[in-house]
Amino acid sequence: MKKNGLTISVVFEAQSANFGEGMGNISSLKQLSRGDGNSYTYISRQALRYSIVKQLAWDQGDNKKLLFAQGSGEKTVIQFSPEATISEYPEIDLFGYMKTRKGKTGGAETRNAVARLSHAISLESYKADTDFLTNKGLADRIGSANSIAQSENHKSYYAYTLTIDLDRIGVERDKSGKITEEIPNAEKAKRVGDLLNVIKLLYRDIRGRRENLSPIFVIGGVYETKNPYFADRIKLYKGKLDISKIIGAMTVDEDSEKNTAVGYLSGAFANDADIYDKLKPVSVREFFDGLKKEVGDYYA
After folding, report:
1. d(CA 164, CA 198)
2. CA angle, 226 as apex, 225 and 229 as ends, to 5°?
3. If you write DSSP's letter for every residue of 119-181 in order, what string do you get?
4. Are 130 and 150 within 8 A, CB to CB?
5. Dist CA 15 CA 225 (whole Å)
6. Treating both helix axes as pointing N-terminal to C-terminal, what angle do 284-299 and 185-200 enclose, rounded to 10 degrees?
7. In tens digits, what is the pLDDT along the chain, a chain of 300 residues?
8. How many domains in the chain?
9. 61 with 81: CB under 8 angstroms?
């Protein structure tokens, strides 16, 4: 079998990086509850994608050709244009699309995502910390009163997973499976490389802050099996990475055991010595350089 399934799981540290709908003057973080009785905040995959697209400047092209508004008033829906192609727009090549043509029967045209992101879920539970905010500085300048706003606050390590089907990058097929469009292999490698470069240096602008979402720990590789080996396998206990669970996932079969690499920012976790002894990590930069080389070899 040919190695064409790329998957990496990333750990980063950030604070209050994705809010949901608030009530009144309260801003609530996106969060979920688990059976252990704890709540965990998360950064949605849509928010991660938004930051990736912004950082790659894929939203700076001819958006009137890429997107269009269908419907009117409150029923307006923004969709990808039926004329937008994967050769022209890397965003829909990697992240997929749904296109509808007015008056056309037979359903929408869809492309499943080739690069899939999971939510980034906190590895430390949320304890309902709240920040109280005012506009006192501005109010004092005009001698006015102002109300107090409340914002949920959580600083934690987060983990998410990216998977890419390398054999589907830059290839468009019709419903019968026939190839209708394909870009050169060099461009395929560039698109994956650009995405990996952004993941390595990812950040998120939110509420006047720039949160660093770049990896302090990353694990994965290019595999024969398209399995997100390390999704939901990264756990943290009192500042220590759960190495045994990671090794269990790494050694689940020969493919994962042979083709997995680890990148690590020294000093990030309390059990540094064990991480270096049992996982043999390289630097985060070396990890991504090695991954991009494998991608280049695949498309060569």
Report:
1. 15
2. 90
3. -EEESS-B---EEEE--HHHHHHTT-----EEEE--EEEEEEEEEEEGGGTTEEE-TTS-EEE
4. yes
5. 34
6. 170
7. 689 999 999 999 999 999 987 777 788 999 999 999 999 999 999 999 999 999 999 887 777 778 877 777 777 778 788 888 999 999 999 999 988 776 665 568 889 999 999 999 999 999 988 888 777 777 778 878 777 788 899 999 999 999 999 999 999 998 889 999 999 999 999 999 999 999 999 999 998 899 999 999 999 999 999 999 999 999 999 999 999 999 999 999 999 999 999 999 999 999 999 999 999 999 999 999 999 999 999 999
8. 1
9. no
Distance (Å, rounded) from C-alpha 251 to C-alpha 248? 5
Q: Give the pair of three-digit tokens for residue 247.
A: 């090794």
Rounded CA-CA distance 142/243 in Å is 57
What are 176's two structure tokens?
Answer: 């019968």
- CA–CA dist 70, 81 (Å, integer): 10
**Under a CB-based contact definition with an 8 Å cutoff, are residues 159 and 121 in contact?**
yes
Residue 33 domain-assigned (yes or no)? yes
What domain range is 249 assigned to? 5-58+87-126+154-299
Q: What are the angstrom distances between the C-alpha of 288 and each of 6, 64, 121? A: 12, 34, 22
Does residue 84 contact residue 63 with C-beta atoms inside 8 Å? no
